[in-house]
């Protein structure tokens, strides 16, 4: 992990996700978390956390983006795509993206710097979600100066 | 884990899920996996695996059932509910149900007896998805005689 750097396309997608996260934070019912899926540098899915908006515990930003990207492609296999997220993906989202065949994730705020509520299993880390025999690159800490104020709040 | 037995309501819901899984297996685009959510013994959500049907990698049977249950309640908190599934829930679904507050799952076929493709991370087991400080009961092996033939196939 952390062996590579984001590409210009990935950095541009991170910046756009940061803008959406900051906007979403001030919108009723939305949490300030945003994600995107890139394929060949092109954005094919976007999502924001809509758990409260949709009354659906599965609607994390990354999950919404996975659904949109798969619909865009017409199939559930997202091999070769890249996940972009403003916050280190939780255990549900990490498992979901790995099942979909995604092997690279670029994210903003890292687990060790944000409120514990964003993760469910203190005994697990992102390293536990590397499937045997398949590569997985995770590059965190992007745009943290803008993003950390969104996620340091420990209140439920 | 495994310290309790299923209640009559839970066994009835398992039987109904088994029937749906066997039916779904023969329907175009559906995988033979079925789930339900109970609250106070009453079914408030159901789901079947619709990954191929919806072209969406997030639509495991348990996720579809979580969404339906949360919509029925009008909020994303499913504390006190019970997850029923014909197959041991994968890592995504385990994380999703725990985030939703579910602390009890009754399931059919267990990971050690089915094809590896149903799970993503060989290094993780259901015990890893017990969050610190919160109870989690998992009772597997229900109706395995009927269910194992659905899940022993190792083909992709």
How would you portray this structure in words?
2 copies of one chain form a homodimer. Chain A is α/β, with parallel strands linked by helices and 156 residues long. Helices cover 33% and strands 18% of the residues of chain A. The first copy, chain A, has 5 helices and 5 strands. A 5-stranded mixed beta sheet of chain A has the order 2-1-3-4-5. In chain A, α4 (91-99) links the parallel β3 and β4. The mean pLDDT of chain A is 93. Chain A binds chain B through residues 51-52, 55-58, 63, 66-67, 70-71, 73-78, 90-92, 95-96, 98-100, 120-124, 128-132, and chain B through 51-52, 55-58, 63, 66-67, 70-71, 73-78, 90-92, 95-96, 98-100, 120-124, 128-132.
């Amino acid at each position: 992990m952390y062996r590579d750097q984001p590409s210009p396309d990935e950095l541009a997608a991170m910046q756009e996700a940061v803008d959406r996260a900051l906007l979403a934070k001030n919108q009723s019912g939305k949490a300030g978390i945003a994600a995107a899926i890139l394929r060949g540098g092109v954005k094919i899915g976007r999502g924001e956390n809509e758990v409260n908006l949709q009354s659906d515990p599965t609607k994390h930003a990354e999950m919404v983006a996975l659904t949109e990207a798969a619909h865009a492609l017409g199939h559930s296999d997202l091999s070769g795509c890249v996940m972009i997220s403003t916050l280190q993906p939780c255990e549900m989202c990490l498992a979901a993206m790995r099942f979909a065949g995604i092997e690279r994730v670029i994210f903003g705020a890292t687990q060790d710097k944000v409120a514990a509520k964003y993760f469910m299993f203190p005994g697990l880390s992102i390293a536990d979600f590397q499937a045997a025999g398949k590569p997985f690159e995770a590059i965190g800490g992007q745009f943290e100066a803008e993003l950390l104020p969104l996620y340091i709040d420990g209140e439920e």
